């Protein structure tokens, strides 16, 4: 096997981790070792592994049919799920287009945006560029990489990608302005307003991860940032594309991160938690206005799709996932546990190699620094995040760092006791390496 986002030479030197089964928020390897799933199996698992309702829904659907095409046809699970998604989505999103994963959901949104402007009366064919944030990550297909901004992931492929307008992300910890003053919040948006005022006639949309830029290192946006982006897009007649692949389905404490500031984007991309972490399924939600621009002559058709679009098993799992949210009052528990997690992580901020602790809902990032005063980062060659993750694994916690950012994304079902265990292991691992550095 060739593993994703993995340096195979390094992986082959280490003891391989082979996960055999899961139960609740625990994973078990082939040797019977038990681990807390501190990354929610890369941010997808919500209610724990082997949840009875999810298992039963898939088994029931399997007794009918596993998959049938949505190209010119439909299936009851896909219809029912679209109806449920519209009920819980930000008000005004009324149409659901299915795909397979987060990257394809973003691809769909980008293509819809460009074609939408072409099919206006009169056609606005100049509107084909996109504004993106630096350090953004939207997936690894060509379109989603084009609106991404993480050099080590995207730079070598840049010659293959379409050009975009990159703006600084609101990275408050690295911001040169004095964060105590409200002006900082507006200063983040000055470049966006400047570009839109001058070039809006050529811009199809602004692509943003609302509230939290996840792969960037769990960078949290200042209050009011998202709603101001929405206002600027409306002012300059530009579509807002919200990538909620990571933040959707309760991760930030509300069903969607856009709900925090009562924002309705023109296009909303969801995946990861859509099926509760069971099966690959994604969707792009949009407004009636955008949908109607594709009605009419055959050439107005949206020519995009995937073989497994709207897979019946995936839709059945997603329906069960949303039902669990209702029955188990998941969002109520997440909001309570979010406060607990924030308090548990607070002591980490005092450690000499921790520069910043960022948190939103059940998403947290701990930024490791070589010098706390100057905020100098560790050289990536030192693999500090990797070392701490390896230490956590030895102590029974599985996490996956992003460079110098230690990321903790527990399943939404994690109890207070389990959160305490996770934070305790993580704190011990960071303290251990801080001592080693001090003694060196």
What does this structure look like?
- The chain has helices spanning 8-13, 40-43, 52-62, 76-88, 102-118, 142-146, 151-154, 183-187, 190-199, 225-235, 288-292, 312-327, 330-345, 384-394, 416-439; strands spanning 19-23, 26-29, 34-37, 93-99, 129-133, 165-167, 203-208, 212-213, 219-220, 239-243, 267-270, 282-287, 354-360, 363-371, 376-377, 397-398, 405-408.
- It has 440 residues and is α/β, with parallel strands linked by helices.
- It folds into 2 domains: 55-327, Type I PLP-dependent aspartate aminotransferase-like (Major domain) (Aspartate Aminotransferase, domain 2, 3-Layer(aba) Sandwich); 329-439, Aspartate Aminotransferase, domain 1, CATH 3.90.1150.10.
- The strands form 4 sheets. The chain has a 7-stranded mixed β-sheet, with helices on both faces. A 4-stranded mixed β-sheet has the order 1-2-3-16. Strands 13, 14, 15 and 17 form a 4-stranded antiparallel β-sheet that branches.
- Helix 4 (76-88) packs parallel to helix 12 (312-327) and helix 14 (384-394) crosses helix 15.
- The longest helix is centred in the C-terminal third of the chain and has 24 residues, at 416-439.
- The radius of gyration is 22 Å and the shape is globular.
- The two termini are 38 Å apart.
- The relative contact order is 0.15.
- The mean pLDDT is 95.
Task: Tell me, briefly, the overall form.
Answer: globular
CATH superfamily of the largest domain: Type I PLP-dependent aspartate aminotransferase-like (Major domain)
Report on the biggest sheet. Answer: 7 strands, mixed
Which CATH-level-2 architecture of the largest domain? 3-Layer(aba) Sandwich
Radius of gyration using CA atoms only: 22 Å
Span of the ends, CA to CA: 38 Å
Strands of the largest sheet, in order across it? 4-12-11-10-7-5-6
Mean pLDDT: 95
Name of the level-1 CATH class of the largest domain: Alpha Beta
User: What's the tally of helices?
Assistant: 15
Instruction: Report the strand count.
Output: 17
Low-confidence stretches: none
Question: What is CATH's topology name of the largest domain?
Answer: Aspartate Aminotransferase, domain 2
Helix content: 25-40%
Please state roughly what percent of the residues sit in beta strands, choosing from under 5%, 5-15%, 15-25%, 25-35%, 35-45% or over 45%: 15-25%
Number of domains: 2
Structural class of the secondary structure composition? Answer: alpha/beta
């Amino acid at each position: 096997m060739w593993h994703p986002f993995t340096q195979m030479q390094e992986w082959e030197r280490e003891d391989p981790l082979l996960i055999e089964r899961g139960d609740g928020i625990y994973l078990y390897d082939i040797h019977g070792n038990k681990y807390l799933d501190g990354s929610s199996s890369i941010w997808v698992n919500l209610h724990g592994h082997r949840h009875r309702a999810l298992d039963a829904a898939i088994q029931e659907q399997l007794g009918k049919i596993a998959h049938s095409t949505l190209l010119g046809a439909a299936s009851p699970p896909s219809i029912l799920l679209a109806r449920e998604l519209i009920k819980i989505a930000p008000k005004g999103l009324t149409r659901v287009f299915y795909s397979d994963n987060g990257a394809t959901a973003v691809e769909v949104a980008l293509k819809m945006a460009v074609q939408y402007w072409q099919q206006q009366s009169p056609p606005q064919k100049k509107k084909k560029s996109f504004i993106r944030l630096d350090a953004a990550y939207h997936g690894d297909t060509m379109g989603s990489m084009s609106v991404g901004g993480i050099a080590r992931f995207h730079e070598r492929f840049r010659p293959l990608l379409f050009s975009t307008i990159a703006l600084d992300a609101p990275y408050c910890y690295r911001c040169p302005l004095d964060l105590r003053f409200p002006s900082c919040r507006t200063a983040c948006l000055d470049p966006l307003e400047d570009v839109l005022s001058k070039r809006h006639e050529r811009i199809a949309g602004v692509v943003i991860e609302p509230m939290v830029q996840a792969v960037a290192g769990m960078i949290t946006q200042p209050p009011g940032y998202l709603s101001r982006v929405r206002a600027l897009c409306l002012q300059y007649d530009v579509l807002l594309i919200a990538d909620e692949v990571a933040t959707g389905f309760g991760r930030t404490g509300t069903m969607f991160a856009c709900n925090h500031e009562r924002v309705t984007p023109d296009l909303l991309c969801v995946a990861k938690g859509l099926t509760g972490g069971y099966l690959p399924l994604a969707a792009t939600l949009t407004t009636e206005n955008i949908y109607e621009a594709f009605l009419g002559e055959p050439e107005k058709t949206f020519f995009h799709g995937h073989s497994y679009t709207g897979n019946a098993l995936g839709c059945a799992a997603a329906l069960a996932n949303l039902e669990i949210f209702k029955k188990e009052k998941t969002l109520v528990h997440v909001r309570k546990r979010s406060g607990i997690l924030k308090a548990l992580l607070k002591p980490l901020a005092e450690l000499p190699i921790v520069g910043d602790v960022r948190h939103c809902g059940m998403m947290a990032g701990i930024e490791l620094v070589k010098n706390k005063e100057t905020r100098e980062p560790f050289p990536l060659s030192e693999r500090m995040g990797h070392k701490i993750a390896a230490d956590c694994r030895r102590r029974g916690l599985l996490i996956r760092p992003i460079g110098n950012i230690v990321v903790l994304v527990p399943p939404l079902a994690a109890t207070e006791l389990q959160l305490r265990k996770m934070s305790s292991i993580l704190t011990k691992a960071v303290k251990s390496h801080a001592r080693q550095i001090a003694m060196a």
